[in-house]
Design goal:
Elements (H helix, E strand, L loop, with lengths): L1 H9 L5 E4 L8 E6 L1 H15 L4 E6 L4 H17 L4 E6 L6 H13 L4 E5 L4 H8 L3 E3 L13 E3 L1 E3 L2 H13 L6 E4 L6 E3 L10 H14 L9 E2 L5 E3 L7 H5 L8 E2 L5
Parallel strand pairs: 1-2, 2-9, 3-4, 3-5, 4-13, 5-6, 6-7
Antiparallel strand pairs: 8-10, 11-12
């Protein structure tokens, strides 16, 4: 992010876009997808699939990007299975198959029978397959990596932003902005469900997707309690985009620390 700003200052006539950042300049935009919306849908799939009511989450860093995704996923789980919990292990890496697999195995050995991930390899999915469990991917569809475990994956459609940005450049209407769109814009989505998903999963996912898109389903709407049971979002209230973007606390039902 800081290097993008540095280079952009040297090339003021070039338009830059930085993915997931928060610093902008006259010729630098930021862009990202509302992955937590797709993760909510993935949570529905996981909540219906688990038999132990213990779902594992292999996550990269305790940053708001990861935390809001975990919370969105857990709320999807709870929407169909209030008894299920989500256990989180931080790997402190975006990309390290060995570390990711080790974290996945730790969760599986604790009794988790479905895994979700915020990692850039398929190692957690492979670990799940080796242990006879199930897994949800991230970023892109990956049904062939662990075909006996793969359920679905929250995915990004980066072309949605890129084409929009290019059109603004061509039309002469480009301005620096903070682009953050989700299911409604087609920026994020859920991969098609595999045959391993529980019956009725597609119908639940479709209903939730429709609600998110038309605004009738607000994911971070109160009452929402944190891990301690304290109410963070009051009944009837909903978190602002700024609060969601900067989320640094886990909801009740998520096991793990936001500090490590």
């Amino acid at each position: 992010m800081d290097w993008t700003l540095k280079v952009a200052a040297d090339f003021p006539n070039i338009k830059f876009g930085h993915c997931s950042g928060y610093k902008r300049a006259d010729n630098v935009s930021t862009y990202f997808g509302r992955a937590y919306e797709a993760r909510y849908l993935a949570g529905i799939v996981a909540g219906l699939k688990t038999k132990t009511n213990k779902i594992g989450y292999v996550a990269a860093f305790p940053l708001p990007e990861c935390i809001r995704g975990i919370n969105g996923f857990a709320l999807g789980v709870q929407s169909v299975n209030p008894e299920a919990t989500v256990d989180v292990i931080w790997t402190n890496t975006w990309f390290d198959p060995a570390v990711e697999k080790q974290a996945a195995m730790e969760l599986l050995n604790k009794g988790c029978d479905v895994l979700e991930q915020h990692q850039d390899t398929t190692a957690p999915q492979i670990a799940a397959q080796e242990k006879g469990a199930f897994a949800i991917g991230y970023n892109v569809p990956s049904p062939t990596a662990a075909p006996k475990a793969y359920l679905t994956a929250p995915i990004f459609n980066w072309a949605t932003f890129i084409l929009d940005d290019i059109n603004h450049i061509l039309e002469g209407t480009w301005t620096s902005r903070a682009y953050w769109e989700g299911l409604a814009a087609g920026m994020t989505d859920l991969d098609k469900l595999s045959d391993l998903c529980e019956p009725g999963s597609q119908e639940k996912v479709d209903a939730a997707r429709a609600g998110i898109i038309d605004g009738s389903l607000k994911i971070f709407k109160g009452p929402l309690a944190d891990q301690s049971g304290a109410i963070r979002v009051a009944e009837g209230a909903q978190m602002s985009d700024d609060d969601i973007w900067n989320m640094n606390w886990f909801i009740k039902g998520v096991n793990g620390s936001t500090d490590q």
